[in-house]
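Structure Section — protein described below
Tokens — whole-number codes for backbone shape
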Amino acid sequence: MKKMARLFAAVAALAMTGTLAACGGGSSTPTASGSPAAAAPTTVNTAAPLYAKLPQSIKDKGAIQVGASIEYAPMEYYDTDGKTVIGFDKELSDLLTAKLGVPFVWNGTTFDGLITQLNSNRLDTIISAMTDTPERQQQVDFVDYYRAGMVMLVQKGNPKGIRTVDDLCGKTVAVQRGTSQDQYLQTTVQDQCKAAGKPLNLLAFDTESEAMLQVKQGRADSGMQDYPVAAYNVKQGNGAYETAGDQVIANPLGIAVRKSDTQLRDALQQAVQAIMDDGSYQKLIEKYDTPQGAIDKATINAGK
């Protein structure tokens, strides 16, 4: 995610724990069936199809050290024990382990410190819903595995018929104050709506849960959130919400590696492509109900 959106979404996730049973409070990963995730692999499998592609340093360690800001449901967050990492990115790493033969060991840290720790050799990779941007490409390489932007959140049934951002003109929209969504609506969308003679009525709140409550109770026609977060909130909202329209300003999320670690980068790229080709990636997408996040090619540094 973009840095500001990533930070505020994390704060919102913590704020919603008591209201929507979201973000760090679930007893299982967000699946259609409600079943918990399988236990993560912990042993090395030298017979794995891509084990030979790994650099010797990873083989010697027998694991890939991954860093993440573990507070961003549904991508990565702690289960109710406060220790077990769950979420889309965690399950993605388990799928990659099946191809590479070594487990990913998860290390929680602040989002802003991840690239510094990676380039200081404290980590081997970053898997933390990190947006692949040209600015970050100057410091790290990315293996892209997902596409995420912003999406509108409306009442179940979409009573106001909101399908595109243009439909927000003349409507009331509730967002968390200071997020990328807030900025986008205040500037780009509001300018367009004023030009059309139908200004946007924007309501900004300190927490995302407050903004969502306005939508649920009909005081706002729509909200706007990061796409995977919105999809998760739909699942946790007990039929109160649905997403509307396509993602806005969608960019790739990537697994970050040091620019010098080209062998590890290429092995990860092959592993991500392998799970895309064998269907297990698509099953993970379906499990988390995020069809707009799916990509079919594991590109390197595709963010623009």
Remarks:
- The domain at 3-148+251-293 is CATH 3.40.190.10 (D-Maltodextrin-Binding Protein; domain 2).
